[in-house]
Amino acid sequence: MKADKSMQRRHWLMGGVALAAVAGGGIYAWQATRDMRSNDEAVDAFWALQLQQPDGQMLALQSLRGRPLLVNFWATWCPPCVRELPMLDRFAQEQAQRGSQGVQMLGLAVDQAASVQRWLQRQPLSFPVALTGTGGVTLTRSLGNINGGLPFSLLFDGQGRLQQRKIGELSPQDLQQWAAQV
């Protein structure tokens, strides 16, 4: 009798574990679908932005669609950001030599205009820079940077779909892999 009850308990326990696994999988699938939907909305909102450049001109991000685009969120007060910018500038120059086959580069400064202007006078960049101000942190969060840390980089394919994202400094290997991917 005790053996039968023990066996029944074991079956109930195994059934409960299986049910929990199925429920967990369902919740995970629902969450992933919800995140993808909100990610698509964030990407659409990104492409709709018009941002001021340090020279005062406006940049419609939509104008950069049609070719792969690497976007780097940075700030003058962020040591890892400043450290990786020369490498990103060399990458942008190499990619520009590839013409329409190259990856475009865009820097989005999460900073004050005056600070960015001073920094760019000392260290000019060969790629466009636009200003997001402190709203850039919110923008990065909507695009998957949950903690809002910098630097934060995104890679979009030629159709404007988000392919890669990285929080922290990019490496030359990251750039090679990302350029080969799109």
UniProtKB/TrEMBL annotation:
Chief site of localization: other
Alphabetically ordered keywords of this record: Cytochrome c-type biogenesis, Membrane, Redox-active center, Transmembrane, Transmembrane helix
Pfam family, one: Redoxin
Single GO MF annotation: disulfide oxidoreductase activity
Membrane spanning stretches: 12-30
GO cellular-component term (any): cell envelope
InterPro entries given in the database record: Redoxin, Thioredoxin-like_sf, Thioredoxin_CS, Thioredoxin_domain, Thioredoxin_ResA/DsbE_sf
The protein, known as: Thioredoxin domain-containing protein
Species in which this protein is naturally found: Comamonas kerstersii
Lineage: Bacteria, Pseudomonadati, Pseudomonadota, Betaproteobacteria, Burkholderiales
